[in-house]
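User: Can you recover a sequence for this backbone? Please restate the input before giving your answer.

Assistant: Of course. Working from this structure:
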């Protein structure tokens, strides 16, 4: 009997407010290494805003890579648009900190990642982005490489497949939730084959960043952008052009690494507070599901159904 395996992610959304704690800019002697993988230019505008936020804090981190891995239309050119805005503000930014990287440097570390979904194996061919992850991870640097994933996780899966030796150097903060649907095979490949990977999987906490809740008046999502961002330099104009209200759904990953002890996810911070997940949620059904079945939010669900050459009455198999 032939069996076909189909993996599905159930994205049942809800939100809660991130547990917050104060933070301060990291001093220059203790910068975190970060590499961002973004689906900028894809299906949502929040990546534009989060990238503008990243560039505003670029003096605080050692930014080692920005990879474009969009689901939908998009690519590295959208990263370049943000850097063009940053370049216009660069002279002013340097009056506040000489640690801001040059626009030329940021362009040199911007890479194109996967544009197509991987096959059922979860990996395919190396990309400029996946190869850059490997190159950065293999640097002679005692600090871990923090990878912030704002969209698909395909390039990370490819990098781990091609160079599993980099595993101990990686710390991953994954904005999961609906993003898991776009690269479920890559996600499943990682969770099944690299169980020792240090990874925060944020599936809903980040919703607190763009749900207005009780924030009204000057602190409402649209009012805040109008008053405090819209006309603040080229980056502010870029931010507003891409979305006239606060969303920044990927920014919690950035804020997480502003904390003093990012290696301890159990501590509260602007990027969330987490507990250890000993097993990734993964359910297998050898039959069609019914209303009586349930799975945890954002679980990977695999249906293993028998292959039938010809069915006279296709509804018969549902009985």
């Amino acid at each position: 009997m032939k069996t076909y395996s189909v993996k599905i992610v159930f994205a049942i959304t809800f939100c809660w407010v991130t547990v917050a704690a104060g933070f301060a800019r990291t001093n220059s002697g203790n910068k975190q290494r970060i590499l961002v993988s973004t689906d900028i230019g894809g299906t949502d505008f929040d990546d534009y805003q989060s990238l503008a936020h990243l560039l505003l804090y670029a003096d605080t981190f050692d930014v080692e890579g920005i990879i474009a891995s969009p689901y939908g239309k998009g690519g590295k050119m959208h990263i370049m648009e943000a850097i063009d805005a940053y370049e216009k503000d660069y002279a002013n930014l340097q009056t506040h900190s000489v640690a801001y990287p040059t626009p030329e440097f940021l362009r040199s570390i911007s890479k194109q990642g996967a544009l197509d979904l991987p096959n059922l194996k979860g990996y395919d061919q190396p990309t400029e982005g996946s190869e850059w992850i490997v190159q950065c991870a293999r640097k002679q640097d005692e600090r871990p490489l923090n990878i912030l994933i704002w969209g698909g996780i395909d390039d990370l899966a490819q990098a781990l497949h091609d160079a599993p030796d980099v595993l101990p150097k990686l710390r991953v903060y994954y904005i999961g939730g609906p993003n898991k649907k776009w690269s479920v095979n890559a996600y499943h490949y990682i969770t099944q084959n690299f169980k020792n990977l240090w990874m925060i999987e944020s599936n809903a906490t980040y919703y607190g960043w763009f749900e207005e809740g009780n924030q009204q008046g000057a602190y409402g999502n649209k009012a805040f952008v109008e008053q405090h961002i819209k006309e603040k330099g080229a980056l502010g104009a870029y931010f507003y052009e891409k979305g006239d209200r606060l969303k920044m759904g990927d920014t919690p990953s950035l804020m997480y690494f502003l904390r003093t002890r990012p290696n301890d996810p159990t501590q509260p911070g602007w990027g969330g507070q987490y507990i250890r997940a000993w097993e990734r949620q993964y359910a297998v059904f050898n039959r069609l599901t019914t209303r009586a079945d349930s799975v945890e939010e954002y679980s990977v669900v695999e249906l293993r159904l028998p292959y039938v050459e010809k069915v006279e009455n296709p509804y018969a198999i549902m009985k």
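That completes the design. The longest strand covers residues 3-9.
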